[in-house]
Design goal:
17% strand, alpha+beta, five-stranded antiparallel beta sheet, three-stranded antiparallel beta sheet, 8 strands
Length: 243
């Protein structure tokens, strides 16, 4: 049986590229590898049938040991000793931590899931660099699928963005009008939204300007605008251009 020819998608990151790019890839059923190259690091997400299964990064702050240390799973002394043994024995750090009884196997699995989620979330703040996506079999045996839907991944990631300039570019000006789409009913079961976010969406059942939404919603305007960006990316609201 002839294998399907690999498809390649590549380009340059801008202030609004990554959220829409990732969601478009997660919405597909194919399998492939998304690599993003920045000024100081390179990060890769492995996607299988629309779900991230693993991620790697050349950034030292994204290493598994750093994740386990920051969340309190291992102490500093234990981490340093395990790193030394890992290098000396040529074994993975996670393997050494389990063998030494410093963490349990389930801690390792959850730690890797946290690492993958951390790497993906860190990419939402990238505004410069290049991306390259190639379909085809994954070049790794790691399978640590996140317990998150594509919609949750986008919400989670955009909530990490603090740049008002990027948010305003995506949702402004005040006269921009928003309205919910039929896609909301499809995605509703998988979206972990707060009561305030659902209330905001209810105001968008009719065309409503950003200015009016800011007056109606109890959410802080910054949080509201950031959520609208996520809603736009997910396609659950549509933005009408200002004439």
């Amino acid at each position: 049986m002839q294998q399907a020819k690999a498809q390649v998608r590549e380009g340059i990151l801008s202030s609004a590229t990554f959220p829409a790019l990732l969601y478009s890839l997660l919405g597909r059923t194919d399998t492939g590898v998304l690599t993003l190259t920045g000024e100081t690091s390179e990060k890769t997400i492995y996607i299988q049938a629309g779900r991230p299964t693993f991620a790697t990064s050349s950034d030292r702050d994204d290493r598994l040991g750093q994740i386990l240390f920051r969340n309190g799973t291992v102490t500093l002394e234990a981490l340093m000793n395990a790193v030394e043994k890992s290098v000396g024995l040529g074994k993975r750090l996670g393997t050494v931590l389990v063998e030494e009884g410093l963490i349990q196997p389930h801690d390792l699995v959850e730690g890797v899931r946290s690492q993958v989620r951390h790497i993906i979330n860190s990419l939402f703040v990238w505004t410069r660099g290049r991306y390259h996506y190639t379909t085809g079999p994954l070049p790794t045996e790691e399978v640590i699928t996140l317990k998150l839907s594509p919609g949750e991944i986008i919400l989670d990631g955009i909530r990490t963005i603090e740049s008002w300039g990027r948010i305003w570019e995506a949702v402004g000006p005040l006269q921009a009008t928003y309205r919910t789409t039929e896609r909301l009913a499809t995605l509703e079961p998988e979206l972990p939204l707060s009561l305030e976010e659902w209330s905001l969406l209810s105001h968008c059942e009719r065309p409503t300007s950003l200015q009016e939404l800011c007056r109606l919603s109890p959410m802080a305007d910054f949080e509201q605008c950031r959520f609208l960006w996520a809603a736009l990316t997910l396609g659950i609201v549509q933005r009408q251009s200002v004439r």
